């Protein structure tokens, strides 16, 4: 009798730029259980699963399947070891039928001739077994999103996977569809499969899991068993405190009202409402921290204030001036700086030099570019913000994540903004760099800027903010003072529990 | 037992003159391949030597084909200058041929009908050149607007508009604009002398070359010294970052396409006013397409574009000469052009990437290879 279907021992993975993505991670899975990996974006969940599925190679540690050490080098070898993954993004060929998609890439279907009839029969059986109601002969383009996901699941089942990874499967589903997915997962569990479920939605994690392991910054925070699962506890584990910083923070001295958001309604990329009637205000010389579990509308809120996302309803006012749905250019001129969360995708141009990246958001009246001045100023900024680069002409893509972030921060601070929106400013940075970022934010505040800080990390929010607002499902649940004793309240509100006023 | 695994990865370090070297190496490779082809075709190695001797001497010596080469360089360089501005923002205007045709047609309309009685030569020429540039710009504006507001793919629309332009021109020269005294050939009447571009002395080279050189500096200035050029560069590298920086992609797209179309239109205008002095069937030997290769080989640098355009002009003139001397078909020259572009792309891949050999432990897959591997 094997106790563990899967054991991951001391898995360590370092990414280029010396970013420690996984640090001595241990994880195991019993047959017939659902073991959830919970954590913020960037905590290392997906990296860990990609190692198990053969997409990345770990630097240290070992993988044991049914007690035997295995070497998984590719998805194909993962599949032969009985590991299947239902990916977040589907990998189906739209013009092929369900059956054709399922056998795509499999070698068991005969050398020359594909015996599709048996395949169809087997898929029908599996589909009936798990109440999926999928016609194996339907073309994939005719299917809905949730049906496509069922095809992905059938594919994994067809491959006879013993270990099935679900990478944020409910991100694309409605609550009803999610519930039927959970029923299917329960059945798989009862048939002796081991399920690894990845998510950051607390409610559904509690609904589906037998055990939950929380991952933060590449390390295991802890594991809870079914009896002890509690939204508040999980939320705290996800975003909990673990360092102490040397921050020079004086009490805030708030001045005039800078930003006023009234009943804001914004949609996300999937055209679903993400911010649902949110209101807040920030004054000069004040940092408002927003605490919340990722995906509760933070990104959409930040983007709508920065001018990158359309406001469906409500108003955004800047010094009493209505700036709802005005251009980014206008907001830059007014002095609204924005540090987005994805520095590589949005905040920088990878092939442009450090100097050029320091100036992409500069809005001058003069249409002539003064290269000499640009280079001279960049040299100064590189020194001032201690950015480590060969020189100012080096393409920014060769900089480490922390230094790239410093370039972004330098650029935004140099706009001498009146309002700074900062999203996950320290993701992937080391402690020293984090301290630098925090002190820079506080300096900007002391100079009279209003700052909106959106972070997944309670620690960050508590360290820097003057006031903390808790966001849940696109609304502000309440405000607290950033004091250690309030962490429990925050945890509850992050989980969606409203507090009595 | 160790398994060796080949891995292809991007080289991080780059050496000086790398781009120049890539271009030279790819040119040599394509000439070698073409040489082998000629050798097989004629069965005589001396023919290969003779071909290349002709190809490299004739177009570049004053008493021989140099003037022809320069005359071909002018439209190629002008179009390429416009193209590199749009290519910089990764918009693929392959409709320069059509924009060139529109420029030529508008100029012809002006020269033969609208301003045919103008007495001042300078103002007539200026007017006709502007006319051509506007027509080219408007033709390029169509796909620009379709892309900016309807997200239609510009590769398809610009290419389709080329055919419309070609057939429109054919209609005009076979129909309403056909020269009544032209023995039924598909060409218009000769333009009034007042509209002909003056020559530089008696060199046989018209003043289009001066316009070209001025525009090299203009393009250089726009691309490297203005915010417009900087914005195009940002859009080309990361459109998301451009949006985040408050740069209007649509506005820049339209400006860049207008510039590109105007230069192609101007090239068409200069071609009819400076060389043929009339509009005729096949007045362009695919300059609009060849200029794409020119812009690309020049790596979007305006100064290199002139040099590459000169070399390509030479290749075209040399090709014509080879038809006469070596009796090669014209398709041979097209094949050589294609080979150059192809080997350029291939050597870029070879230079920019390297093959790394990594050692791996043997991979066991489900115990299938437990035997004597």
Largest sheet of chain A: 6 strands, mixed
Beta percentage of chain B is: under 5%
The backbone outline of chain B, from C-alpha atoms, is: globular
Number of strands of chain A: 20
What's the alpha carbon Rg of chain A, rounded to whole Å? Answer: 25 Å
Please report the distance between the alpha carbons of the first and last residues of chain A.
55 Å
**Total beta strands of chain B:** 2
If you average the pLDDT of chain B, what whole number results? Answer: 86
Number of helices of chain A: 17
Structural class of chain A: alpha/beta
Order of helices and strands of chain B: EHHHHHHHHHHHHHE
Helix content of chain B: 55-70%
Strand order of the largest sheet of chain B: 1-2
**Broad shape of chain A:** globular
Q: Which whole number gives the mean pLDDT of chain A? A: 86
Identify the strand order in the major beta sheet of chain A: 6-7-8-3-9-10
Describe the structure using short key phrases.
heterodimer, A: 501 residues, alpha/beta, 6-stranded mixed β-sheet, 20 strands, 33% helix, globular, B: 373 residues, mainly alpha, 2 domains
In short:
The complex is a heterodimer of chains A (501) and B (373). Chain A has helices spanning 45-52, 75-80, 98-103, 116-129, 145-158, 175-190, 202-208, 231-239, 298-306, 328-334, 343-347, 354-357, 371-384, 401-413, 431-446, 458-464, 487-494, and strands spanning 6-15, 19-29, 34-38, 60-65, 68-70, 83-86, 163-167, 194-199, 211-216, 219-225, 257-267, 273-283, 286-291, 311-318, 321-322, 336-339, 419-423, 450-454, 467-472, 475-480. Helices cover 33% and strands 25% of the residues of chain A.
């Amino acid at each position: 009798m094997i106790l563990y279907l899967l054991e991951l021992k001391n898995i360590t993975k370092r990414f280029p730029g010396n970013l420690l993505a996984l640090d001595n991670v241990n994880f195991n899975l019993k047959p017939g259980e659902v073991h959830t990996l919970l954590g913020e974006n960037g905590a290392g969940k997906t990296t860990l699963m990609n190692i198990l599925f053969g997409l990345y190679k770990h630097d240290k540690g070992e993988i044991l399947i049914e007690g035997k050490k295995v070497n998984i080098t590719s998805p194909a070898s993962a599949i032969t070891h009985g590991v299947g993954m239902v990916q977040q993004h589907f990998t189906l060929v739209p013009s092929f039928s369900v059956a054709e998609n399922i056998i795509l890439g499999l070698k068991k279907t005969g050398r020359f001739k594909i015996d599709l009839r048996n395949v169809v029969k087997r898929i029908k059986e599996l589909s009936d077994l798990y109440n999926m109601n999928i016609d194996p002969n339907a073309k994939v383009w005719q299917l809905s999103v949730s049906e496509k996901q069922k095809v992905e699941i059938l594919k994994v089942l067809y491959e006879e996977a013993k270990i099935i990874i679900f990478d944020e499967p409910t991100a694309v589903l409605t609550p009803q569809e999610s519930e039927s997915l959970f029923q299917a997962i329960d059945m798989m569990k009862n048939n002796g499969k081991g399920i690894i479920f990845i998510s950051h939605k607390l409610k559904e994690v509690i609904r589906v899991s037998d055990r939950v392991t929380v991952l933060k910054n590449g390390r295991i925070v802890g594991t809870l068993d079914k009896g002890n699962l509690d939204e508040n506890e999980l939320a705290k584990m996800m975003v909990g405190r673990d360092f102490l910083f040397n921050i020079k923070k004086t009490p805030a001295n708030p001045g005039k009202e800078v930003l006023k958001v009234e009943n804001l309604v914004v949609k996300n990329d999937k055209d679903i409402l993400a911010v649902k009637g949110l209101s807040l205000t920030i004054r000069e010389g004040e940092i408002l921290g927003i605490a919340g579990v990722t995906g509760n509308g933070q990104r959409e809120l930040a983007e709508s204030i920065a001018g990158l996302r359309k406001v469906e309803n409500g108003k955004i006012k800047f010094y009493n001036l209505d700036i709802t749905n005005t251009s980014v250019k206008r907001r830059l001129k007014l002095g609204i700086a924005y540090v987005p969360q994805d520095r590589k995708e949005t905040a920088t141009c990878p092939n442009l030099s450090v100097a050029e990246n320091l100036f992409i958001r500069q809005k001058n009246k003069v249409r002539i570019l003064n290269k000499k001045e640009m280079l001279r100023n960049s040299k100064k900024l590189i020194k001032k913000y201690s950015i480590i680069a060969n020189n100012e002409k080096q393409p920014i893509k060769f900089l480490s994540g922390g230094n790239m972030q410093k370039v972004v921060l330098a650029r935004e601070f140099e706009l001498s903004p009146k309002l700074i929106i900062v999203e996950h400013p320290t993701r992937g940075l080391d402690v020293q760099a984090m301290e630098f970022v925090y002190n820079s934010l506080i300096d900007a505040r002391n100079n009279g800027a209003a700052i909106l800080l959106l972070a997944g990390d309670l620690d960050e929010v508590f360290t820097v903010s003057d006031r903390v607002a808790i966001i849940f499902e696109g609304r502000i649940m309440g405000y607290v003072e950033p004091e250690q004793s309030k962490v429990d309240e925050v945890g509850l509100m992050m989980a969606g529990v409203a507090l009595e006023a | 037992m160790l398994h060796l695994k080949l891995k292809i990865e991007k080289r991080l370090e780059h050496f000086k003159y790398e781009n120049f070297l890539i271009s030279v190496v790819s040119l040599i490779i394509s000439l070698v391949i073409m040489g082998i082809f000629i050798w097989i075709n004629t069965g005589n190695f001396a023919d290969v030597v003779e071909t290349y001797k002709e190809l490299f001497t004739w177009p570049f010596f004053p008493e021989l084909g140099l003037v022809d080469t320069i005359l071909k360089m002018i439209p190629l360089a002008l179009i390429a200058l416009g193209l590199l501005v749009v290519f910089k923002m990764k918009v693929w205007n392959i409709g320069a041929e059509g924009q060139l045709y529109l420029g030529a047609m508008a100029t012809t309309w002006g020269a033969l009908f609208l301003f045919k009685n103008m007495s001042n030569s300078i103002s007539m020429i200026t007017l006709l050149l502007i006319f051509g540039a506007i027509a080219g710009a408007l033709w390029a504006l169509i796909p620009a607007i379709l892309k900016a507001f309807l997200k239609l793919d510009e590769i398809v629309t610009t290419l389709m508009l080329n055919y419309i332009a070609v057939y429109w021109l054919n209609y005009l020269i076979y129909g309403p604009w056909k020269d009544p005294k032209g023995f039924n050939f598909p060409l218009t009447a000769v333009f009034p002398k007042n509209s002909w571009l003056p020559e530089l002395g008696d060199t046989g080279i018209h003043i289009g070359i001066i316009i070209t050189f001025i525009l090299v500096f203009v393009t250089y200035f726009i691309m490297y010294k203005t915010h417009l050029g900087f914005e195009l560069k940002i859009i080309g590298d990361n459109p998301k970052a451009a949006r985040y920086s408050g740069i209007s992609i649509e506005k820049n797209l339209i400006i860049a396409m207008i510039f590109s179309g105007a230069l192609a239109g101007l090239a068409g205008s200069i071609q009819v006013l400076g060389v043929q002095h009339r509009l005729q069937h096949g007045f362009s030997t695919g300059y609009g397409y060849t200029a794409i290769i020119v812009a690309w080989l020049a790596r979007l640098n305006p100064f290199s574009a002139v040099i590459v355009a000169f070399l390509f002009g030479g290749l075209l003139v040399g090709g014509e000469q080879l038809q006469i001397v070596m009796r090669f078909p014209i398709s041979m020259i097209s094949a050589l052009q294609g080979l150059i572009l192809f080997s350029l792309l291939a050597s870029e891949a070879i230079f920019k990437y390297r093959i790394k050999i990594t050692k791996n432990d043997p991979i066991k897959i489900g115990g299938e290879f437990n035997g004597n591997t």
